[in-house]
Design a protein that fits this description.
By secondary structure, the chain is mainly alpha-helical. It is built from eleven helices and no strands. The protein has a domain of 61 residues.
Length: 222
């Protein structure tokens, strides 16, 4: 990033990409205090140079919204979420990957706010779009499957949630293997769901499987 700043200037597209990418890396490392000014610098520069409706600006807007949501800044996050989603739909169409990304961020925001009734139709729309346009077992599709399952469970729509939970578990087993953390989480989630439904005979083998895998991977004292 320093080389890009020195050789190309602060407003060059390569510099702005480096600034944004460094923000992502720092945020992933839990260094949010260092990440936030980089996210803001990239977004403000892209707005000024490229305009609000450029693809890079939309990506920065969505990234900034997701970051702020994780930091608990819900007022600014919601404003940016809605801005990015509306612009993505208008400019790119409902089925563009960047629109899906904006929907994913908006759904997460609504879930955090407990607004499951608002989150459900958005998540259903995104899941249907993902199934239609992406290859089977795409990670984006699986994320929407997981989100929709959680949204339906929160609303007590158990009949709709169960097949999605099973789909997520089967996909994680097939793609990641039985010992992957995401698969283990899916096993536990399905076991919890069955237990809560009073279906303990079905839940027990899943709990046993998860416990055995956890012990083999992490040890008895983890």
């Amino acid at each position: 990033m320093r080389i890009h700043r020195r050789e190309l200037g602060n407003d060059h597209s390569a510099t702005l990409s480096s600034i944004n990418n460094l923000g992502v890396v720092l945020n992933d490392q839990g260094r949010s205090v260092e990440a936030e000014p980089l996210y803001r610098e990239a977004l403000e520069a892209r707005r000024r140079i490229l305009g609000n409706e450029h693809l890079d600006t939309l990506a920065s807007t969505t990234n900034m919204a997701g970051f702020l949501r994780a930091q608990g800044n819900m007022v600014e996050a919601e404003f940016l979420c809605r801005e990015a989603l509306e612009a993505s739909r208008r400019i790119l169409g409902n089925e563009h990957p960047e629109t899906l990304h904006a929907i994913f961020t908006m759904v997460g925001f609504l879930q955090n706010q407990g607004k499951m009734v608002n989150a459900e139709p958005l998540c259903r729309e995104a899941l249907e779009t993902s199934r239609r346009n992406l290859e089977k077992d795409n990670p984006i599709t699986l994320k929407f499957v997981g989100n929709l399952t959680a949204i339906l469970l929160e609303q007590g729509k158990f009949g709709d949630a169960e097949p999605l939970g099973k789909e997520a578990l089967e996909a994680h087993r097939r793609i990641l293997g039985n010992e992957h953390p995401a698969t283990l989480m899916s096993i536990y989630n399905m076991a919890d769901f069955l237990k809560d439904q009073g279906r303990t005979d079905e839940a027990e083998p899943l709990y046993r499987e998860a416990l055995e895998v956890s012990r083999s991977v992490q040890g008895n004292e983890h």
